[in-house]
Write a structure and sequence with these properties.
Blueprint (H helix, E strand, L loop, with lengths): L3 E14 L2 E14 L3 E5 L6 H8 L7 E6 L2 E3 L3 H4 L3 E4 L11 H11 L5 H9 L15 H13 L5 E5 L7 H16 L3 E6 L2 H5 L4 E6 L2 E7 H5 L4 E5 L3 H10 L4 E3 L6 E3 L4 H10 L6 E5 L3 H10 L12
Parallel strand pairs: 3-8, 3-9, 6-7, 7-8
Antiparallel strand pairs: 1-2, 1-4, 4-5, 9-10, 11-13, 11-14, 12-13
Helix pairs in contact: 3-4, 4-5, 5-6
Length: 312
């Protein structure tokens, strides 16, 4: 066993048309460890959905290898799909039935006990609204019901393709909380998205792609690295600026003009310098690039690559 839930090697997908060949995924090596939430990140059209469709047997790769739970796919899909749940496209639910009735129909069609409906409804936070008609659901509730449907068979791997697209801030928060809870419960979640501020709040690891190619992969901490500056909050910023300058530490006011940014990763040196001058800290916070900044820098450097032709 490799210890990876998803693994691709040299994965490639070409689309041929009268206009020629368009490459959507080119030589992609993807490794998703078991447990937690793994962000699958890239700009729109970078090949995320195409990759997911190949993993699920919905599209045939042009070249390369894919494995789910250390089993080669698509050859072994029939034996592993029972362990996988996926929300790739908007599922079709009956609008005049309640959320619960829709889930009961699904659970009975796949032979799972009705108790799984109660568990799925509770997991996605629809308790109390599950008896409402589906047509009255908000977009966020519809997405949560779609996730609930995938949970009926208690999957070990859940694949979500842009689950917050079109949602308002409240809906995004609902889906984010659901995904975080699932990751903490032991389910491995592959979260495809381009909304980085949301992803950073739930992901433990991430893969970033651009033009169908791997750009970076690792834990979020590994990708962002250690902070090289500190945010400093003190009562007297002028005195603190002078003190830090005298200690050889470069400091400046931040954008709001109320706090300091010190260009040093040595928090102890900052504390000692200010404390020796009788200036006491009320906050000392390491600063590092957020995932969105890192992502934008990484993908901007990849703009010389050709477009993938992937419509999603």
């Amino acid at each position: 066993m490799s210890g990876l839930v998803i693994e691709t090697t040299g994965l490639r997908k070409e689309f041929r048309s009268r206009r020629g060949t368009r490459v959507a995924v080119q030589g992609l090596d993807l490794a998703v460890p078991a447990g937690g939430v793994h962000g699958f990140l890239g700009p729109n059209g970078s090949g995320k959905t195409t990759t997911i469709r190949m993993l699920l047997g919905l599209a045939r790769p042009t070249a390369g290898e894919m494995r789910l739970f250390d089993q080669s796919v698509p050859a072994s899909l029939p034996s592993v799909l029972g362990r996988v749940g996926a929300v790739v496209e908007s599922p079709k639910f009956s609008p005049n039935l309640s959320g619960r009735q829709n889930l009961l129909l699904l659970s009975r069609s796949i032979g799972t006990p009705d108790t799984r409906v109660d568990e799925a409804v509770e997991t996605v936070g629809l308790t109390g609204r599950d008896r409402d008609r589906y047509k009255g659901y908000s977009l966020g509730m519809k997405q949560r019901l779609a996730i609930a449907a995938t949970l009926l068979k208690a999957p070990e791997l859940l694949i979500l393709d842009e689950p917050t697209n079109g949602l308002d801030p409240a809906g995004i928060r609902e889906i984010r909380d659901t995904i975080r809870d699932l990751g903490e419960s032991g389910v491995t979640v592959l979260l495809s998205s381009h909304i980085l501020a949301e992803v950073q709040q739930v992901c433990t690891s991430a893969t970033i792609i651009g033009n169908g190619r791997l750009l970076a992969s690792g834990t979020v901490d590994e990708l962002l690295g250690e902070g090289t500056a500190h945010r400093v909050v003190v009562a007297d910023t002028s005195a603190a600026l002078a003190t830090l300058a005298a200690a050889g530490l470069n400091a400046s006011l931040d954008a709001d003009g109320e706090h300091l940014v010190v260009d040093s990763d040595d928090g102890a040196a900052i504390t000692r310098s200010l404390g020796a001058a009788g200036i006491w800290l009320s906050e000392l916070t390491p600063l590092r690039p957020d995932l969105e900044t890192y992502f934008l820098e990484l993908t901007a450097a990849d703009t010389l690559g050709t477009t993938t032709g992937d419509p999603r």
